[in-house]
Amino acid sequence: VCPTGYTLDSNRQCVAREEIMPERVCLNGGELMSDFNCMKTTNPIMKCPVEYTLVGENMCQKNVEIDPVAVCPSGFTLTDGQMCSGSKTVAPIKKCMQGVLNEMQNECILQKSVSPISTCPSPDFTLVSNERCVREVLY
């Protein structure tokens, strides 16, 4: 005869059955939340629009080349032949209305900057506050 809570098995031994809750573990580095769901966060991938390059961690930049404008010194006027005419003829001084003149003084360089676009590495993740990617895994 077995004690209370025990039963006699086929080997004539008294055996009690014990049940315990399984340990919940998140796979792939996820974090177990209070509602027993797993959440994994990753940093967004910073990408710039086409023709822009990422400068530092949070700025996209594009170089735009435009032709310089011929400007004559004070007292001279620009002729149709793109020369400055006055008491004597001299080559025009090139200045850029926007940007800066390059070293060869034949192009103006204008830098434009825009912020990068945050995207998550896969469609399974949702971008939260433009700062982190979150994926909810249900078990």
UniProtKB/TrEMBL annotation:
It comes from Cryptosporidium parvum. SUPFAM superfamilies: Growth factor receptor domain. InterPro entries: Growth_fac_rcpt_cys_sf. This is Cgd6_200-like protein.
